[in-house]
Amino acid sequence: MSVIKSFAHRAHQTLSPLAPRTFKRSHVYELIAAGLGFNSWAALHPSHVLVDADEADMPPDFGRNVVGRALQLGCLQPEAQKIAEHFQSLYAQQPFGCLPLSELDENLFESASGTDGDSDSEEQDFEDDEDWPEEDESEAVRRVFPKTSELLRADIEDRANRGDVFSHYRLAKILQCKVPPDYLYQESLRGRVLNAQEQRWADGYVELKGQHERFVKHLRAAADGGVRIAAMLYAIVADDPSYKEMADRMQGVPEEQHWHTRSMKQADSASSNLDERAESGDLDAAAQLAAQGDENWLRYLAEEALEAGRFVDLWAWQLVALHHGMDLTRSNMHAYHDGGLNDGEFYDSDFGGPMYVDGDEGVELPEISEEQMKAAQGRAEQLLSEASD
After folding, report:
1. Which domain holds residue 49?
2. pLDDT tens across 287-346, in order?
3. Is 246 among the domain residues?
4. Among residues 41, 130, 176, 221, which one has the fewest Cβ atoms lying within 10 Å of its Cβ?
């Protein structure tokens, strides 16, 4: 049972004895809408989705709105007052808010423009309140970002199951993640006793593997349903060229056309200051420069991936480098003159004098599985494709 259906079931059991002649299960949804400031559930749900809001303030006029809606549903004044009091208590135990679908799409697609094959660039997850843009207090109920909301996932999945193809793609974007290496998990299956940190990593692998499988499932459903951008991404994720061919024959649905156009405009306006953005710590900008063949950013991102244990990413950057005629496993360290007339130039023993060594040692590439290599190849192809757009 989904979160909202569970809440409605519990609320109906609690509230129906207060107005046994008139109160129905569907009336709970009407009270939800009223509490959130809508005239009816039909006015709320087509254009808005529900989200968990544990830290949200109770919406203004919550109780008064619930009383008014209960009266409209046929309750007598004393019954409506009791229903509102109990409903408000239930809400306080499990608060929720609403988010316009347009705002959800903005968070999911605009922030992920040009990065559909990877979740790192999307991990601007707004998990902390401080990450959210400034907003007035009346908007506090909307602070929970979709990726952390079980209620929103259930709402979007329900829409998808009822035939809303684009909601399959929304759900895929919410679920999109990377699967970490399975080494420790496999070691545990072989009988190795893991320490606490290793066990957390192994558990994380199991959790993310399941999430990734759901991501692929909904991505394919969106692709099969005619969402072109989903077909393009699925072709990469599943290494299935037939979906690339399918995407070439499709035309995007209005929603994805809108976000694609908007993303391209944003990319054009940002292209002139990629270097500045990368230097200021923008990893998306650094990734774009690396994909275009900037060796410094290629090495930086490869080493960052190595340190973080993201070996598929590491191999992807190596494949991008090879495409541009570079090999990140080769050292580019050189000796340079330290001071004097030739300061900073390649060291020449004929001149002698002090010297220093600078550059990067070659990146050590760990072995990865065949499946991981396919994922790295897909990631590299996507990076190069985006760089050429």
Report:
1. 3-148
2. 888 898 888 788 878 888 887 889 999 999 999 988 888 888 876 555 656 666 555 565
3. no
4. 130
